[in-house]
Write a structure and sequence with these properties.
Elements: E1 3-7, E2 10-13, E3 18-25, E4 29-37, E5 44-50, E6 55-57, E7 65-70, E8 75-80, E9 89-97, E10 102-104, E11 108-113
Parallel strand pairs: 2-11
Antiparallel strand pairs: 1-3, 3-8, 4-5, 4-9, 5-6, 7-8, 9-10, 9-11
Length: 114
C-alpha cells in the first residue's frame, strides 16, 4: 500500500523557517512535488523535483524555499525560509510513480503570523 506521510508543519512568525518532510513507502517515485492550498483558494504547485534532482519553483517562493530528496530514505523535504503570511496554507506532498500514477499525502498545516 502506498503512503505519503507529511510532517513538520506548524505555526511560525513571519521571517521564520520550517522544514516539511514527506516519507513515502510502497513505491519508487519518478517525481515528487509540494502543493499548497490557502483558505478560499485553489491548490497550487509550490515546487517539484525529479528523481535525478532537477527542480522547479513557483515564482512566489524562489530564493526562499528549497526542495530536496533522499532516495535512500524515499523522503522528500521542503525547507522554507523567510516565511511570509501569504505562505499560510495546507501543504500537500505529491508523488508520481514509474507507472505515472499520482499519490497525495494527507496535508500539513503551515501558518505564518505577521
Amino acid at each position: 500500500q502506498v503512503q505519503l506521510v507529511e510532517s513538520g508543519g506548524g505555526l511560525v512568525q513571519a521571517g521564520g523557517s520550517l522544514r516539511l518532510s514527506c516519507a513515502a513507502s510502497g513505491r519508487i517515485f519518478s517525481s515528487n512535488a509540494w502543493y499548497r492550498q490557502a483558505p478560499g483558494k485553489q491548490r497550487e504547485l509550490v515546487t517539484a523535483i525529479t528523481r535525478d534532482g532537477s527542480t522547479n519553483y513557483a515564482d512566489s517562493v524562489k530564493g526562499r524555499f528549497t526542495i530536496s530528496r533522499d532516495n535512500t530514505k524515499n523522503t522528500v523535504y521542503l525547507q522554507m525560509n523567510s516565511l511570509k503570511p501569504e505562505d499560510t496554507g495546507v501543504y500537500y506532498c505529491h508523488a508520481v510513480d514509474l507507472f505515472r500514477r499520482n499519490y497525495w499525502g494527507q496535508g500539513t498545516q503551515v501558518t505564518v503570523s505577521s
